[in-house]
Amino acid sequence: MIEIRGLAKSYGAHQALKDVTLSIRPGEFVVVLGPSGAGKSTLLRCINRLAQPTAGEIVVEGTPFRSSARDLRLLRRNVAMIFQQHNLVKRLSVLKNVLVGRMADLSPVLSCLQLFPEADVKIARHCLEQVAMSHKADSRADALSGGEQQRVGIARALAQQPKFMLADEPVASLDPKTSRIVLSYLKQSCKESNIAVLCNLHQIDYALEFGERIVGLSAGEVVYDGAPAGVSGDV
Ligand code: ADP
Ligand code: ADP
């Protein structure tokens, strides 16, 4: 179980996030739905400490994470993040990009030399299978289409073997057909691996199609938390 307790974030006098409390079960696919400026990015960035929350805590399987260096390392290992811009290393192969997801467990020397243990290569290849990208393992990342790059970004996050996956508008730059393919792979692969997902979206149609549970965010507050069937058009 992943628990977000009383999370808040202020930028000066502006409260971007107000007392957000959520519990997410392993394998649950939760869509955070809200208009631009609602605080969706801030929520995800406070969870993995890309931003420092003003109040609140994250508890993963009963262990609270605070701001010590050790807690941050553990948090980053347990929580993977996917961005709108997948940030792949363009000149590296697809497989090596996925292996980047394994680097936290490697010694700095090995990771500098890009020498990966066979066990890590096996994990990376399995993650590429989960997003149906095995056939492109040896292609350079910049030879792929936008949708394929995002699928590799998902594989890289899966390779980290996280308990929790955060996806910040993962399909915002993709066309509708490609968006649905990418969201399907994200949902299916996280289900297979029993990873809890918080996926930010601003499109209500994708949210209703893919979300098992919808968290509606408006002006930094949770205004809805429940089944897609109960969502009205004004979330
Ligand atoms: P969303 O992801 O839903 O579009 P954000 O989390 O990006 O929303 O932003 C929520 C609010 O916080 C917005 O009003 C935004 O302008 C503000 N905000 C976000 N990041 C910063 C920052 N670094 N400094 C000041 N204000 C910020
Ligand atoms: P998105 O909503 O797509 O996540 P934003 O445009 O809200 O992106 O934010 C992009 C970046 O700009 C983020 O790093 C955010 O922290 C920062 N940002 C957003 N709003 C403000 C603001 N009012 N002042 C300073 N930085 C901001």
From TrEMBL:
Single GO molecular function: ABC-type phosphonate transporter activity
Pfam family, one: ABC_tran
Keyword RNA-binding set for record: no
SUPFAM superfamilies on file: P-loop containing nucleoside triphosphate hydrolases (SSF52540)
A single Gene Ontology CC term: membrane
Domain (ABC transporter) ranges: 2-235
InterPro entries for the chain: AAA+_ATPase, ABC_transporter-like_ATP-bd, ABC_transporter-like_CS, ABC_transpr_PhnC, MetN_ABC_transporter-like, P-loop_NTPase
Stored CDD domains: ABC_PhnC_transporter
Domain of life of the native organism: Bacteria
Entry keyword set: ATP-binding, Cell membrane, Membrane, Nucleotide-binding, Translocase, Transport
Protein family per UniProt: Belongs to the ABC transporter superfamily.
Protein name (database record): Phosphonates import ATP-binding protein PhnC
